[in-house]
TrEMBL record:
Esterase Ig-like N-terminal domain boundaries: 39-172
Keyword 4Fe-4S: no
Gene3D superfamilies found in the cross-reference section: 2.60.40.2180, alpha/beta hydrolase (3.40.50.1820)
Domain of life: Bacteria
All copies of domain Phospholipase/carboxylesterase/thioesterase, residue ranges: 218-395
Keyword Signal in annotation: yes
Protein name: Peptidase
Signal peptide: 1-28
Alphabetic keyword roster: Signal
Length: 466
């Protein structure tokens, strides 16, 4: 998780290729067997550092008494395997790791893992501890051969360590999993999105370009703003779920952000490689991208296809790292199209911007975010330099939140080893507070205000119109 993260925004994404299985034999007092379990679910959701498996839901097939459950009734084992490559010899091999997951809570629930207050039930949910450093909880690995996140082959084993009782008083003592039991996967937050989007574009210079995308459209009849997110290089590929969960992008469709927009559509395009690809497979050295025309066409086609639903005066674009670069690239390629932009840890070298480019950008509302601890992008030569040039050019609605470090702001994660200070993330990951909407101060350390009222980044953005 600490390798090549910069320009590669997230290092994790959702795994649905897991092989998780369950088998149940119930030994009753009269020696009869109860039905086998119907299903087993692994629950994954996005965190600030990427996705993690945090719940398992066992359908036992028999009514279990709640008061016989304890946190040590089960033990959960996670095994991960994934393709690896020796970067010196180019030899490929299979990597693997395994560990015991720490169980925080065990309780009866419904089939989705929501806690039940009933005295008995067939679903047992186990909540497991997660932490930014808990690699075993991740359904993903970082592929050094492609510099992108890839699914691991994931297998969980549930081992029953203590007997339970059903409502008839029978002992239920063998709920240990097996590889041939049916299972389901739950992807929290992703279910709001359509992840099947595909867009084909014939570029005059680069030929056929195939983009994929995820999208969210609120179910109402009114015109809605559109929020666009452009992923980092680590989320490139052909599965938009990676772009949704490599970072906590699903939060854009969550209530805490949606409330500012009165419900907004969300579009998350995905490149098969990386946005900064200059057409040779290398990172651009001029600011040019082979995907500029294709991405422009995708966005405009999506808006056209949803003309009755999208307010074209309220289209917002942002992204992290590689996606932050592409945000500026899109503003330059489409003057006056976007109502506002929110790039974070953006990798657009300021020297690539001409005076004419600065004049193009200065009238577009932009809120930059970056951290001084960023060791991937030299912010002094990117966002900081560009922000200062925009202000000098007379920009009236350009802001810049710049902080020393990227720290956990939830209060849940600490440095550890006896140090109770907030956990410190990679300094490049300045999009974490953006996607949590924990951004409110300008470069001078003072709150950004609208009509005298201090506002957060998302509240500011929702007020911008063409």
């Amino acid at each position: 998780m600490n390798m090549k993260k910069g320009l590669l925004s997230g290092f994790l994404a959702l795994a649905v290729t897991s092989s998780l299985f369950i088998s149940t034999n119930v030994s009753a007092n009269n020696s009869t067997e109860a039905p086998a379990p119907f299903s087993y679910s692994l629950v994954t959701r996005g965190y600030d550092w990427g996705p993690a498996v945090y719940k398992v839901i066992l359908h036992t097939g028999v009514d279990i008494q709640a008061d016989t459950l304890t946190n040590d009734t089960f033990k959960v084992l996670a095994e991960r395997s994934y393709p690896m490559v020796n970067m010196q010899t180019k030899q490929k091999y299979t990597g693997a790791d395994s560990s015991s997951r720490t169980i925080d809570r065990v309780y009866l629930s419904d089939e989705k893992g929501n806690a039940s207050e009933q005295p008995a039930g067939q679903y047992i949910t186990m909540e497991m501890k997660v932490h930014p450093d808990s690699v075993s909880a991740s359904p993903f690995t970082f592929d050094l051969s492609t510099f992108t996140n890839k699914y691991v082959d994931l297998q969980y084993t549930l081992v029953q360590q203590k007997p339970l009782q059903d409502t008839q008083g029978n002992t239920v003592d063998n709920l240990t999993t097996r590889p041939d039991t049916p299972h389901t996967m739950i992807e929290q937050g992703v279910d709001k999105f359509d992840t099947t989007g595909k867009f084909n574009y014939k570029d005059a210079k680069y030929g056929q370009i195939h983009l994929t995308y995820a999208s969210y459209m609120p179910a109402n009849d009114k015109k809605k703003p559109l929020i666009i997110w452009l992923h980092g290089a680590g989320e490139g590929g052909t599965d938009p779920r990676i772009a949704l969960l490599g970072n906590k992008v699903t939060s854009l469709a969550g209530e805490s952000i949606q409330k500012y927009f009165g419900e907004a559509a969300v579009l998350v395009p995905q490149t098969p490689t990386f946005w900064m690809n200059d057409g040779t497979g290398q990172y651009t050295k001029t600011g040019k991208s082979m995907y500029t025309s294709a991405l422009t066409a995708l966005i405009k086609q999506y808006v056209k296809d949803h003309a009755a639903a999208i307010d074209t005066d309220r289209i917002y674009i942002g992204g992290c790292s590689n996606g932050g670069f592409m945000t500026l690239n899109m503003l330059l390629a489409n003057p006056d199209y976007f109502a506002a932009a929110y790039p974070s840890a953006e990798a657009y070298t300021d020297s690539w911007l001409t005076k004419q480019d600065i004049n193009k950008l200065k009238d577009t509302p932009i809120w930059f975010t970056a951290a001084g601890a960023d060791k991937t992008v030299d912010t002094s030569k990117a966002s900081t330099a560009t922000y200062k040039r925009l202000i000098a050019a007379g920009a009236k609605n350009v802001h810049y939140s710049y902080f020393d470090k990227v720290l956990d702001m939830s209060g849940l994660y600490k440095k550890g080893n006896g140090d109770s200070a907030a956990y410190e993330y990679n300094g490049h990951w300045s999009w974490i507070p953006v996607l949590n909407n924990n951004i409110s101060k300008d470069y001078n350390g003072k709150p950004v205000k609208i009509k005298g009222k201090a506002v957060s980044l998302m509240e500011w953005m929702a007020s911008q119109k063409n």
